[in-house]
Design brief:
This protein is mostly beta strands. Helix content is 15%, strand content 38%.
Length: 245
């Protein structure tokens, strides 16, 4: 199976698809009255559905963000700012990754995450004229207070746990699942050495920000996930739909 799409309800799918195409380098495919955008590889697409409006990001919500992994975050930031897009200054966040953040025109959060840590990026990693070449939707991030329930659901669908990352300074840890037969290079899934390997995967991981015991609110404009190869719609551990692709 494959994690093949994230469903978001938006005000204007055509307009938002133009942002993902013209600014972030994705391809656009009409899907009935909706728009499907993505990079065309084994990573997930975004299915932009009619009916949204008024979305406001909140740390108390179940849905958090997408992460776009790419070779050179600095080049991408320079490119975005030249196009008038507001984006945070890149930084090495602990021993997690070199990253920055922006929002799309409807307010959905996008993280840009470099394949390599700040000081490990090879020279000439990306083309300044096309910094999103080689990019993919690397993560779809949800919040949870019960990682055991999320783990059981993911494993029941055939997903594999690839990495766990301690961010206790901020009160959470991170857990990454994917449909893959690959194993991380280091058997200890808490290992820092696995992280740059993880950011280079061409497929999308389902990332959980786990705050033990916390309760999160549903997000009306987050409409669930799509798993290619799934036979019937199921509900995840939170109750959100996962649809066949």
């Amino acid at each position: 199976m494959r994690l093949s799409a994230l469903y978001l309800r938006v005000t204007d799918p055509d307009r938002l698809a133009g942002f993902y195409r013209d600014i972030l380098g994705m391809s656009v495919h009409g899907h009935r009255q909706n728009q499907r955008v993505g990079y065309g590889g084994p990573d997930a697409d975004l299915l932009l559905m009619h009916g949204g409006g008024g979305y406001a990001q909140d740390p108390g919500q179940r849905y958090w963000k997408i992460g776009i992994t790419l070779p050179d975050v600095d080049l991408a930031v320079e490119y975005l700012r030249q196009k008038g897009v507001k984006v945070s200054d890149p930084k090495q966040f602990q021993d997690i990754g070199y990253m920055c953040h922006l929002q799309d025109p409807e307010g959905f959060v996008i993280e840009l995450l470099q394949h390599d840590f700040q000081d490990n990026r090879p020279a000439g990693a990306a083309d300044p004229a096309d910094p999103f070449a080689g990019a993919c939707i690397g993560q779809i991030t949800l919040r949870t207070g019960d990682i055991a329930a999320e783990d059981a659901f993911c494993r029941a669908q055939g997903m594999r746990l690839l990495s766990m990352q301690d961010v206790s300074q901020y009160g959470f840890d991170l857990h990454f699942y994917a449909f893959t037969d690959e194993a991380p290079p280091v058997a200890d899934l808490w290992s820092v050495e696995n992280r740059e390997w993880l950011w280079k995967r061409p497929y999308t991981t389902l990332e959980f920000q786990h705050v033990a015991g916390a309760r999160f609110a549903p997000v009306p404009d987050y409409r669930g996930l799509e798993f290619q190869g799934l036979k019937d719609t199921v509900r995840d551990a939170f109750g959100d739909p996962v649809r066949p692709g």
